[in-house]
Amino acid sequence: MESVIEPLFNGILAAFEPQNFGMLVLGCIAGLFIGAMPGLGSVNGVAILLPIGFLVPPTAAMIFLAALYYGAMYGGAISSVTLGIPGASTAVATVFDGRPLAQAGKADLALTTAAVASFIGGTISVILFTLFAPPLADFALKFGPEEEFALMILAFATFVGLGGDDIPKTIFSILIGLVLATVGIDIITGKPRFIFFDISGFLHGIKFLVLAIGIYGIGEMLWTLESTGGKVQVHKVDGAFSSLGKNLRRIKEYLGATVLGGFLGYFIGILPAAGATPAALMAYGLTKIFSKDPDSFGKGNIAGVAAPESANNAASTGSMLPMITLGIPGSPTTAILLGGMIIWGLRPGPLLFTEEPEFVWSLIGSLYIANVVTLIFNLSLIPLFVRVLTMPFTILAPVIFVLCVVGGYVPTNTLHDVWLMLLFGFVGYILRKLNYPVAPAVLAIVLGPLTERALRQSLIGAQGDAMIFLERPLSAFFIGCAVLLLLYPAFVVFRRNRAKDKAASEG
């Protein structure tokens, strides 16, 4: 512990140097707005702004990009809450309860919750990063494709709770998402799969953002227009700073979900190729499953905002750990950061702590500061963000539509995905009318490719023996947890019916 305090203190002081601190503040602000733009997110933001790193020393460059990554994690919550459009895949779970809160005139509460939860999750992850970097990096190395597949099964088990009590509809929704995830080029044979009507646009697969923006942007807009008869009332929102203290005092309502999301997000984040999206989804699912009031999720429960926001922020820090200690990127964004480090002449790996201690500890110290700076910016700008909801729907609807079109075009720069997004918007609207949960389908298309790759790698390595998943201890543990989560809803229903029968007999 003592060996950590001194270099950490020196790293924090180095991060406060004028150039480093200036780049940190610039990164937080840029990340905040880049994350809020549908279709951009941290990956595109870091890629676009990577050249700025060549104008300053490597330490200042990495501090800037890490702060941008931090800011983008929260930025996705802004459009998720105010417009119902996830800025990136990491923020899709925030839509589930953040949007209903905004529609109820509580956008300021949702954004405050997201900011505080992100800060707590980030703090947990940075402390864990500081104290346990080497052993956690060794732990991450034990994850082969078998463990990754079992972890994805565990994530899918948490999805079952996302569709309410109608388990068959939820499973159907998950299966639809998995089918859509297989569209494109087969990862093993290299042959095209499900290329409908031989349309070449399907060769690059169906991007998550195209589906998510279509369902939550276009679909939600169509549903709003129908349910209100075209007469959409302006949301009444409290954009004054006077409400900030009242919102902050509600932290006790979601502190448990935030801590769960922070720890879960960090440990999922350190796994190579896992990233913040599965962490946010699992945190939301587990929080709902173990909540005393699971029926309130999806209707504006602030714990449903806190859990994924804490998890995705913690995972962003966690994904940097394998990048720095092992030279293995933990997410697509850290893969770009890794490339930048190599360009700047730094060699990520076990020797980086001994060869470049000033760089490493300055970066770690900057994460503490970026966490506080991002919180301050987030809270101070909330009155500005909620003003979006006071716009007349005749103005807001075209803005949402334009953002959806831009967000659908950005991933592949093809009009094929724009038309596909519009189609998904109409399908999402129909599914909502039929009372089918769309969240599990959206989430399944995110994890589908990861699950398929891990499954096929495992079976190829084991020559088709499926028992390999039970023979490896970590894999067997995750599968066991998944089975328990699948059985838990049935246990809850059984206990509820038993309580009713007991009450009836006593009455």
User: Structural class from helices and strands?
Assistant: mainly alpha
The end-to-end span amounts to 61 Å
List low-pLDDT spans. none
Q: Please trace the helix and strand order, writing H or E for each element.
A: HHHHHHHHEEHHHHHHHHHHHHHH
- If helices are DSSP runs of H or I spanning 4 or more residues, what is the number of helices? 22
**Average pLDDT taken over every residue:** 81
Largest sheet at a glance? Answer: 2 strands, antiparallel
- For the record, the count of structural domains works out to 1
* Number of DSSP-assigned strands: 2
**How large, in whole angstroms, is the Cα Rg?**
22 Å
Helix content: over 70%
Q: What share of the residues does DSSP label as strand, in percent? A: under 5%
Principal-axis shape: globular
Topology at a glance:
Blueprint: H1 2-15, H2 18-36, H3 41-49, H4 58-82, H5 92-103, H6 107-141, H7 145-159, H8 167-181, E1 184-185, E2 192-193, H9 208-227, H10 242-248, H11 255-269, H12 276-289, H13 303-318, H14 320-325, H15 332-343, H16 352-355, H17 357-386, H18 393-409, H19 415-433, H20 439-461, H21 468-471, H22 473-506
Antiparallel strand pairs: 1-2
Helix pairs in contact: 1-17, 2-4, 2-17, 3-4, 3-15, 4-5, 4-6, 4-13, 4-15, 4-17, 5-6, 5-13, 6-10, 6-11, 6-13, 6-17, 7-12, 7-20, 7-22, 8-20, 9-18, 9-19, 11-12, 11-13, 12-13, 18-19
